[in-house]
Design a protein that fits this description.
10 helices, 12% strand, Rossmann fold, single chain, alpha/beta, 8 strands
Length: 290
């Protein structure tokens, strides 16, 4: 099965569980906003990126060439997978109106700092400005796929972030549960403040330790997933309305794989989750064929 991806790890990791899959085009680190107003490579120094893959992906974003890279393989493709993971970090908007995805690579190579110095500002994911420009870019993506006669082969992986590690219960996110997590943090902070006082530290230092108490690993994952999934709601709804087909998973159905090859993250799932997603993908593809 020959695959193109416009997205990131959710689609790429899923493809690894598809039998005899061959990824012909992988468009990553590329917000759909770059399809309409790419900044271009002028003035952007990528020399600190040591990976050829990273340089290719960032260069593609700067040129806005994502649709072109997929469309040139149109005759050979069996399916196009989309996901929205790379939108989560927002994009840089320059004074001339051009944009650049705020990928980790852009941060690490210093291009984000260069952008800020040149007057660009970060448009953060979840804001109305970001959503409006993302929506316009996503429509451009869909129209490009239609022009390449790929729209019917396109499937959105609408997969929420997992809020718990494998083996743990899905966190409850109602008011009582959130208040309970905050209360437990306060208790930990109180204990730490008490220890500071017993060591002879001043009251000010003890109160500072109370304010600086960090969430546990489980609390951090639960909070990150809750926040991201809330921010993604309108993006997911709009994307589903424009895409031919979707595979949907809610956070309560998923778990974080602590041993994932790229490390534990709310969007790095268990093998069984990917296998389930693949099964749903093939069901959608069978419906398309019939």
């Amino acid at each position: 099965m020959k695959i193109a991806i416009f997205g990131s790890c959710v689609s790429r990791d899923t493809a690894e569980f598809m039998p005899e899959a061959e990824v012909l085009a992988y468009v990553a680190r590329h917000s759909v906003t770059s399809l309409e107003s790419p900044h271009g490579t002028a003035g952007i120094d990528l020399s600190d990126l040591t990976s050829a893959f990273q340089k290719r992906m960032v260069t593609s974003d700067l040129k806005g060439s994502g649709i072109e890279r997929i469309s040139k393989n149109a005759e050979d493709l069996d399916v196009v997978l989309l996901d929205l993971v790379d939108e989560r970090r927002g994009f840089w908007k320059f004074p001339d109106g051009t944009t650049m995805t705020n990928s980790l690579e852009i941060e690490s190579c210093g291009a984000a700092r260069t952008a800020r110095r040149s007057g660009a500002r970060l448009v953060e994911f979840g804001t109305d400005e970001h959503f409006d420009q993302w929506k316009s870019g996503f429509i451009t993506l869909i129209e490009g796929l239609k022009d390449a006669e790929l729209w019917e082969k396109t499937i959105l992986l609408d997969i929420e972030w997992a809020g718990a590690l494998d083996g743990a219960k899905h966190p409850q996110n109602d008011g009582f549960a959130k208040a309970g997590r905050q209360w437990r943090r306060l208790q930990r902070g109180s204990r730490e403040a008490g220890r500071e006082l017993s060591r002879g530290r001043g009251l000010g230092e003890a109160l500072q330790s109370l304010r600086n108490i960090k969430p546990t690993e489980a609390e951090e994952y639960a909070d990150r997933a809750l926040s991201a999934n809330a921010d993604y709601i309108r993006y997911r709804g709009e994307a589903r309305s424009l895409t031919a087909s979707s595979v949907v998973r809610e956070s309560r159905e998923l778990r974080i794989d602590r041993n994932h090859k790229w490390g534990p993250q709310p969007f790095h799932y268990r093998d069984t989750d990917y296998q389930s997603i693949v099964q749903s993908l093939f069901e959608v593809l069978n419906d398309i064929d019939t």
